Amino acid sequence: MKSLKIFLTMLALIVGMTACDDALDVTNPNNQSTYDFGDSESELEEAIIACYNRIRLEGTFARVGYTMDAVRGDEVWNSSQQWYLDYDNLNSPGTIEIGDLWIWRDCYHVVNRTNFVLSKVFGVTMSDASKNRIAGQAYFLRALAYYELATYYQTVPLFTDYEEYSDINTMYASNSTQDEVFDQIENDLTNAMQMLPSRDAGGEWAKGRATSGAAAGYLARALMFRHKFSDAYTVLKDIIAGKYGHYELKADYGDNFREGPDYENNSESLFEVQFMDYGTGGTDQEWTPVNISSQATQGHAVESNYASQQLGSWGDLAGSPWLYNLFKKENCTDGRLDPRLYWTLVTYEAEYDSYTGQITAAYPNADPRSNTVYQQDMTASPLSNTTQGGISIAKFTNARNNIYSSITTGLHCGINLRLMRYSDVLLRAAECENELVGPTQTAIDYINQVRRRVALPDLQLSDFPTADHLFEQIANVERPKEFGCENGRGIDILRWGFFYDEARLNQLVQHGYYKLDGTASTDELTAETASASSFQYYYKGHEYFPIYQSTLNANPNLVGNSANKNEDNGPAFRAKWQVRPIAN
Question: Is the pTM of this model over 0.90?
Fold first, then answer.
């Protein structure tokens, strides 16, 4: 009996200890890893949202990933003469983090997260529709990241398999050629285009997300970068025909740069980066990938670079006098200024106060949605930088939204950045038509759709005797006026080969003239009257940004690109494609 009691006591202790072990053997939901996450549809939905989070970091589109391409173009210059200067001048030594590292770092964060989603999604049980939506978004966002990487850094490592990160030998990847990266971009965008719903079919779900239309638009961009005009034209015509959802130009050009649900994710937008409206986010600024606060401001700092120091910004970037005077060369059919000037550059024009009853955002007195905080006392153009001067940039800033009375620098602006608009589809279709068959009425009609939105007179086919003449109109009139100071002009100049032709490079020098006189100079500048031009300092190969030297030092398999080597890309470009000569 005594032995039985001892046995029962020991059995109870063993059972109790086992129960304790079972109770303690649980997974901490706050300490998950990639090994035990992503095995359900709901977790993959969370993971894809995390991928979108990475495209609104400083190095992607919350600041330098957006503005660096603008300053590489000919319609923006560095008015602070400090930050961005080496990228404006196209001669970075490869040791400056802001452009050589931050964009690289943050784009690869997008690649990493999308690769994780793609490594999991095809093994999880869910409906085909859900699987396609999750995978399609991952393909689009990965392609978007590689499009940025390839157009900023030329030759970059290509990671498409999440398992590659598990081995140090594959993590230390070598450069892929730019063509190899673009092959992957085209493949990813084709997948996304086939898997994602259109904006129409997606309904509320599609607002703020990648859709088949977004993928189609970016595929056309990628194809045109490598002069695949026939393939790109097919995609563009399908977008115009509504195959990927209904898109149309907004009647009011300014609706593309306003904040709020009445304007963002509108019928003109193929894809835009989502930012929370001013004052609705948290208080922590999420500058880098390690900032993962639940109280992030969830705004961008493009405004802090673009807007006037007199209105509270840093005043780092300014619009070029060339762009201003381009707007002034042609008036609307009723004699008014092109309303795009108002939304692109913050210049004071007496005309803005003289019109009433006009249905256009260019004249705020006639627009009940604007309380004209800045216009009511403005009798002169505010300075971009109070020391060097320069014309302040209006796009994606509060200067024309008039939501708050002064700018708070940092990641606070809530205006969504529209990365691709339907007007780009139309102007690209015109360019493809011109490249394939020369100037035609079809090409002219595409352009006139964009011009009529702002009441400019129609172009006439008879005014463009050759493809060179119509290309000049598209490249140096229509596109800079429609997209001035937006992300993309620098990439256009790359794909057109303007750095590889002496006459075209001299043209860029003329466009890039600026004046360091402490005013918002709107003079048409020449070599004699300008302080300098961004492009006079250009080093061959630096149309791309160098790979950060510390990154090269850390990876024995990685080599520098043309900017690291000061290597001329002109011969390789001209061996494949032509640089169109200047035509008046």
Answer: yes
